[in-house]
Amino acid sequence: MTDLPAGWRTLTPHDIADASRQALVIGPFGSDLKTVDYQPEGVPLVFVRDIRGGDFSNPRTFVSPEKAEELKAHHAMPGDVLITKMGNPPGDAAVYNGAGPAVITADCIRLRPALGFDARYIAYAMHSPNVKAQISAITSGVAHQKVSLDRFRHKVKIPVPPFSEQKRIVEVLEEHLSRLDAGVEYLDAAKRRSERFRVALNHRLFARYASFLKPLSSVVVIENGQTPRGITDRLTDTPTDDVVPFFKVGDMNSGDGRNMAASRYFVRRVDAGSFGISVRSAGSVLIPKRGGAIATNKKRILTTEAAYDLNTMGLRPKEPLSVDYLWRWFQGVDLGRIADGSSVPQINAKQVKSLSIPVICREKQDRLVAELDDLDGSANRLLAAVASGQKQASSLRRALFAAAFAGRLTGATSEAEQIEETAAGAVETKIPEGVQF
Question: Contact at 8 Å (CB) between 417 and 172?
Answer without folding.
Answer: no
